[in-house]
Every structure is written in structure tokens, then in C-alpha cells.
Design brief:
Elements lengths: L2 H8 L6 H4 L7 E7 H5 L13 E6 L3 H5 L6 E4 L4 E5 H9 L3 H7 L6 E4 L1 H8 L8 H25 L2 H16 L2 H4 L6 E9 L7 E9 L4 H22 L3 H26 L12 H8 L5 H20 L9 H18 L3
Parallel strand pairs: 2-4
Antiparallel strand pairs: 1-2, 1-5, 3-4, 6-7
Helix pairs in contact: 8-9, 8-11, 8-12, 8-14, 9-11, 12-13, 12-14
Length: 341
């Protein structure tokens, strides 16, 4: 599906909600491509046609600006269309959320709607970029890495090797605990491998926990994160290898993309959603032409580059909240003027 075909599709009855929904219509500030079409990694063959993802931002109505009403997100699952409210997008952008940043880094010709207020937000996009991008892009990349590694480990490793792999995945995830939960200074969580009494296990993961005066909800979140690693691993272990191989290749492609995009952001090069320069590499990975072991070798190099970019980034530690607030006020004043207030 080329760009002209996509534009015609957006004008069809299938997407009439963009024009008729009370929260959208003239309130749409930005409407663009998402997913593979925005990266340039979409496939259009008799065997497979990439889904069309549409992403955007909508302005608050007068009720949301001045009243008690709240409406944060519009989703049409049938067409893979998601639009976020202006206020939600501002919050996500200050945290360098990759999915939201990508909307503003799309190619100009992929911007189907860009209102005056949307252009103001796009033109001041750099105000939101900070070293928070390291955690945001790095976190997304690690999710993809874990999925790919789990699949390979499940296919070719012994039970003992698999258990060690799971432990390493959990420990890596635990490195982000300090960013998300209350400090663990009031106790300790120690994870380690030991011999197992289970019939089908040689070794397994154990933990020692010593915590004092620790909030139960925070601990529940930490334990949930650790459990999710094991759960995701087991889910991939039940997969149909032949059927799911394209999905694994896609995960690995996104792993490569996230690292390269994250490094560019941290280097102060902005967000380049359409991956023109590394498109061939990405498509080779997606099409299974690059062995996964080679992908991991590239990732090892990327992790070093990513860490260097993080430590030497010209970006500030935090976004410029004062200037962002000034921008938000200016945009909301323009919206109020439109509403005759």
C-alpha cells in the first residue's frame, strides 16, 4: 500500500470515525503513520501485507479544558488507530516515550493532519528531549532482546543453561528497580542459582528476601516484574517454532531499530522515525536473512555505543519543564480563543 492509497483509505467509510467522533474531527492536532509503515519496514507481498497503524494527537474540547471532563485516548481496534489527548501526550513526551516521540519524528509526507497547534508542538519538540531517553529506549530494547534470547535459549539450551539465562534476564530487569520503586536500602533481595529438588530440574532460581518496613504494593510491583520475565519465557517456550519464526525476526528487527534510534536521540540527532539509512539491514533481519546470532553480536556492540551515548549525551538530565509549561499555556490559549473564550 503506497502513500496515495493510504490517504484514500483514510477518506473511506472505514475511517469515518476520524471525522465524526466527538473527540476527533476538527480537534485532531496531528495524524500520522505508526508501526512498520512509519519506519519503512512494511511488507506488501501476496503472503503478507503489513497492518496499517494510524497514530495521532487530539486537542481537548472546552469541557476538558475548563470543566471536569477527562478523555485521554481514542482507540479503534479494527483499524489499529490510536490517538492520545494533548495532555497525555505532553506527559509521555516529558518521559521520552518512544512510541509518542516517533509520531513527531515521522517524515513530513506522512503527516496527514497537522493543525496550527500541532505544528507548534512539533516545532518545539526538542524541549522534551533529555537523557530520560536512555531509560525509555533502553527499556523497550531490553524487552525485545529478552523475547529473542528466550526463544533461542528455549530451542537449543539445556535446562541448567535456560535457568541461568532466566536469572540473568531478571537481574537485568532489576537494575531499573531504583528508577521505578522505593529504594531498597531498607532491605535486600538476593537472587541466585542452586540445586533443585524438582524431578525435571537440575538447578533452579532461588531468592533470599530481607525487608523491613517496606510497602507491600512496591514489593508486589517488583515481584510482578520478576514473574513476568519467567512468564514471558514460558510462553515463548510453548510456541510453534516454524509458525512464530517471522514474529521472532520482527522482534529482532525492532531490537536493532530501538538501539539505533535511542543512540541517535542521545547523541542529539533528534528522532528519525523513517529508517532510511539502515533500512536494508532491518529488512534483512525481518526477512530472516540475518542469523539471530549475528543480530546479538551487533546488539553487543550497540549496548556499548548506547552506554557511551548515554554518558556523553549533550541532552539535559531533565526536559525544560518551564519552557514546556509556557508552550502548553500558549497552545491552550489558542484553543480557548478558537472556542470563543
Amino acid at each position: 500500500m503506497n502513500l496515495d492509497e493510504i490517504k484514500l483509505k483514510l477518506e473511506s467509510n472505514e475511517y469515518k470515525f476520524l471525522r465524526e467522533d466527538i473527540h476527533l474531527g476538527d480537534n485532531i492536532m496531528l495524524l500520522t503513520l505508526g508501526g512498520s509503515h512509519s519506519y519503512g519496514t512494511n511488507i506488501d507481498t501476496p503472503e503478507h501485507v503489513s497492518d496499517l497503524d494510524i497514530r495521532g494527537v487530539f486537542a481537548p474540547r472546552i469541557e476538558e479544558l475548563l470543566g471536569l471532563s477527562k478523555y485521554e485516548e481514542f482507540e479503534n481496534k479494527a483499524t489499529d488507530t490510536v490517538l492520545h489527548s494533548f495532555d497525555k501526550v505532553i506527559h509521555l513526551m516529558t518521559n521520552c516515550n518512544p512510541n509518542v516521540l516517533e509520531m513527531f519524528g515521522c517524515k513530513e509526507e506522512h503527516m496527514f493532519i497537522l493543525s496550527e497547534e500541532g505544528k507548534m508542538l512539533k516545532d518545539n519538540f526538542n524541549l522534551f528531549l533529555s537523557r530520560k531517553a536512555a531509560h525509555a529506549f533502553g527499556g523497550y530494547a531490553q524487552q525485545q532482546l529478552r523475547r529473542c534470547q528466550n526463544a533461542i535459549a528455549r530451542d537449543s539450551s539445556t535446562q541448567s543453561e535456560k535457568e541461568i539465562h532466566i536469572l540473568n534476564s531478571i537481574k537485568y530487569g532489576m537494575e531499573s528497580v531504583k528508577d521505578n520503586y522505593r529504594s531498597l536500602n531498607n532491605g535486600i533481595i538476593n537472587l541466585y542459582i542452586d540445586e533443585s529438588d524438582k524431578d525435571d530440574f537440575d538447578i533452579e532460581i532461588f531468592m533470599d528476601v530481607e525487608l523491613k518496613h517496606y510497602p507491600i504494593r512496591d514489593f508486589k510491583s517488583i515481584y510482578s516484574d520478576m514473574s513476568n520475565v519467567v512468564r514471558d519465557y514460558d510462553k515463548i517456550g510453548q510456541r510453534n517454532k516454524k509458525k512464530d519464526e517471522p514474529h521472532l525476526n520482527k522482534h529482532c528487527m525492532h531490537l536493532y531499530r530501538l538501539y539505533t534510534m535511542g543512540i541517535e536521540v542521545l547523541q542529539g540527532k533528534g528522532v528519525n522515525t523513517y529508517r532510511e539509512k539502515d533500512l536494508k539491514i532491518l529488512m534483512d533481519i525481518r526477512n530472516g536473512m540475518t542469523p539471530l546470532e549475528n543480530v546479538f553480536a551487533m546488539v553487543d556492540s550497540f549496548e556499548k555505543d548506547f552506554q557511551y551515548a548515554k554518558e556523553n549525551s549533550p541532552l539535559p538530565e531533565q526536559p525544560d519543564y518551564r519552557k514546556i509549561e509556557e508552550l502548553v499555556i500558549e497552545i491552550k490559549k489558542k484553543l480557548l480563543k478558537k472556542y470563543g473564550v
